[in-house]
Amino acid sequence: MKNRVLTGDRVTGKLHLGHYAGSLKNRVALQEEHECFVMLADVQALTTHFERSELISCSLKEMALDYLAAGIDPNKTSIFIQSMVPEIAELTMFFSMLVTVNTLRHNPTVKAESKGAGLDELYYGFLGYPVSQAADIAFCKATLIPVGEDQLPHLELARKVVRRFNELYKPVLVEPQALISEVPRLVGTDGEAKMSKSLGNAIELDCSAEELALKLRKAKTDPARIHKNDPGHPDICPIYAYHGAFRPEGAVEIRENCEAGTIGCSACKEKLRLALEGLLAPMRERRVDYAARPRDIDDILQAGTAEVRRIAAVTMGEVREAMGLDY
Ligand code: SF4
């Protein structure tokens, strides 16, 4: 039987290589074998951007374009908008009865993310967003959730909520399994632990050939390599991390040559540039093609959302019936 796979992204801006390595590439492959859903998580974006909601509406179609450019095929994957599926909000409310505040407070990811988002206080919506995530997963009875290691506590919570619901009422929901991504997190071009648009260290999927070359030229390398022949330390170099993620077949050679001081950083970056150009050039072409047909993008989002709502209506019928609320 096909797995039902749910993935998504907070709608806060364009997607970059970190998204591609961490999940998009995986999604493109998964859609060949499974029933796939990709959620534009605009409600979840509000947990940190509620004062800048215009950023969310501006980013929505750009992100849809990024998905399509990266190879998400709307004939194989339903792309939908979270806020247009009110059943998710309804299920979130039902689930919120089953989770204690202490459980949410002790979730290590919530703590770290709240701090990282620069929120001065812990808001109710932010604290509760793992409950909303559990509803995102459960409403469509997703069986497989591709996640990075840092998202595992959320998935575990979703599994617990579903289990609790099934035990308390009736076993109508499905406990999802995690599919850990091979490259959970990509470092930034400045060597920071995470590639992020807001940190200014990202290579966006829609960047031009010139922008790509410039970003790589400026990217940090091992500071100990002053001369071309100085032995390097690839493990502290973001360029080496990118070789590993996007050009794995050549990464061993890069490591050996870097450590031996037999390759200069410019030559190393050029090899990477060629590999990345090979990845991004077809994406640019698909992007231009879709961007010229904005009505088609609207249709794709409408169709994906309609398909998801059809599934959501069935699930919520079962949920209400299990809870005795089917009047
Ligand atoms: Fe980084 Fe490559 Fe330079 Fe080594 S040779 S420090 S891996 S850019």
Structure summary:
By secondary structure, the chain is mostly helical.
Outline the structure in words.
The protein is mainly alpha-helical and 327 residues long. It folds into 2 domains: 4-186 and 293-323, Rossmann fold; 207-288, Orthogonal Bundle (Tyrosyl-Transfer RNA Synthetase), CATH 1.10.240.10. Helix content is 56%, strand content 8%. It has 14 helices and 5 strands. It has helices at 17-30, 42-49, 53-70, 86-96, 101-105, 108-116, 124-127, 129-139, 152-168, 209-218, 238-246, 251-260, 265-291, 294-323; strands at 4-10, 35-41, 77-81, 144-147, 177-180. The strands form 2 sheets. A 3-stranded parallel sheet has the order 1-2-3. A two-stranded parallel sheet has the order 4-5. Strand 1 (4-10), helix 1 (17-30) and strand 2 (35-41) form a beta-alpha-beta unit. The longest helix is centred in the C-terminal third of the chain and has 30 residues, at 294-323. It is globular, with a radius of gyration of 21 Å. The model has no long low-confidence stretch (mean pLDDT 93). Iron/sulfur cluster is lined by residues 221-222, 225, 232, 234, 237, 239-240, 254, 258, 263, 265, 268-269. Keywords: Ligase. Its EC number is 6.1.1.2. It comes from Paenibacillus mesotrionivorans. This is Tryptophan--tRNA ligase.
